[in-house]
Amino acid sequence: MTLGVEAGATYAIEAPYAVTAGKIAEFAAALGEKNPAFTDRDFARSLGLADVMAPPTFGIVVTMPALERMLAGVGVPLHRVVHGAQSFVYHQPICAGQELDAKLTITSVRSFKASTILMARAELSVAGGSAVTCDSTLVVAPDEEPEPAPMVDEGESADDAPVFEPVITESIPLSVGAELPNRVVRVRRTDLVRYAGASGDFNPIHYSDHVARSVGLSGVIAHGMLTMGIAARTVTDVLASPADLKEYSTKFVKPVRVPDDMVGAGLSLGAIVRKELDDAVQIDVAAQARGEKVLGMAKAIVRLPTETRNAK
User: Fold this and answer.
1) Within its chain, how far is the Cα of 188 from the centroid?
2) Phi, psi of 42 (to 5 degrees)
3) d(Cα 143, Cα 43) in Å, to the nearest integer?
4) Helix H or strand E encompassing 192
5) C-alpha angle 186/190/193, rounded to 5°?
6) Please, are residues 266 and 184 in contact by the beta-carbon 8 Å criterion?
7) pLDDT tens-digit readout, 194-238
8) How far is it between the farthest Cα atoms of the chain?
9) Read out DSSP for 235-262?
10) In this predicted structure, what is the pLDDT of residue 95?
11) What structural domains does the chain harbor?
């Protein structure tokens, strides 16, 4: 299959997106976020923010309509697309009360084996004003219809890893080699439904076993952006302010399969401060499900506090 699209094609949202505290709270809840910067206006203002800020991956909510238009324009059904990688560069926080413009530009189209790989850059800005975030998305579209996959016996793959959420009461010094608190988060199909509503991503591979198997998957899988958003908590939970996050990126190396039961999938998360940069540190994030890595080369670039920068 040859896609009828070239690099340089652009897709914009039809009208400015009005960011509300309610939508931010809905999205934060879908990720299991409890950071008060996302829900408590007074706390957010104590951090110097204009209002509650959005979690790091919220930009996908704004750009989803443009992404769907891009895929429709190139003739690729949403359920046949594999999300290969995602990155965010933050120029300023997304906060309640903003109106955002978004433009998606295809930056690269290439063939690899039996697939077409699309790279797209999304630029979010305050309507008529300054830049907010710059996101990059890599999607893979198979050239041929994949062979349907057989149904997997859920009993053979049940995951009963105990849930563990660390209690973090203050920011943690980000010195090289520091390991951030580990956690195990459980993802059930109800969580996929909740995230679909919050994000606007209703790809049926995230709720229909029939559709998932029709594209070669063994069953329903979690949204890659849900996994990425949950994994971000290992970083934002230890920061004095989530607004100190400058960049966040990952590759999606293996899907998280979510059984049709009340157990779901256990997502094991951890992070380590890998190295110092000029005025920031790089934190490497690890995510596993059923003992297998699901995020690859996941990293966050975090701005150091002013006092730390001045001491260097």
Assistant:
1) 17
2) -65, -40
3) 49
4) helix 189-199
5) 120
6) yes
7) 999 999 999 999 999 999 999 889 999 999 999 999 999 999 999
8) 59
9) HHTTSS-GGGEEEEEEEE-S--B--SSS
10) 98
11) 9-142+158-308 (3.10.129.10)
